[in-house]
Amino acid sequence: MLISDFYLTTNKIMLRETLATQYRWTDENGNKVAEFKIWDWWDGVNVSDFEIYEKYRGKRLSYQLLDYSVNKCGARNIAVNKTNFIAKHIYEKYGFKIIEQDDNINYMTYVG
């Protein structure tokens, strides 16, 4: 399964007071497949709200979406809840490393 098999839409949205672009993929029936948001901050381009919807989990889309966010959108930073072990593992395997953390969140940057 390839992310390019799905339909991509982008929308400008606000994350609190920060302008972001939402990338959303849907299937031929209009069902959500995956999405994330890209936004600029003082520390560079960030990706957030990275989600693959349940029906499409386990289909090897995570790395394709990370490729898209890093290579096409320029994302370098991502945050993940410390209890989300699967996402943390995927991000680390892809090339993100923890650079900071607080009680609940691991802040990661892409090192390749």
Question: What this model shows, in words?
Answer:
- This protein is of the alpha+beta class and about 110 residues long.
- It has two helices and seven strands; from the N terminus they run ββββαβαββ.
- A hairpin with a 2-residue loop joins strand 1 and strand 2.
- It is globular, with a radius of gyration of 14 Å.
- About 25% of the residues are buried.
Report the major sheet.
7 strands, mixed
Strand content: over 45%
Q: Tell me the number of strands.
A: 7
Average pLDDT reading: 96
State the shape. Answer: globular
User: What is the strand arrangement across the widest sheet?
Assistant: 1-2-3-4-5-7-6
Query: Residue share in helices?
Result: 10-25%
Please state the CA-atom Rg, rounded to the nearest Å.
14 Å
Q: How many individual helices?
A: 2
Structural class: alpha+beta
Order of helices and strands: EEEEHEHEE
Give the termini distance in whole angstroms.
Answer: 24 Å
List unreliable stretches of 5+ residues.
none
Give a short synopsis of this structure.
With 112 residues, this protein is an alpha+beta fold.
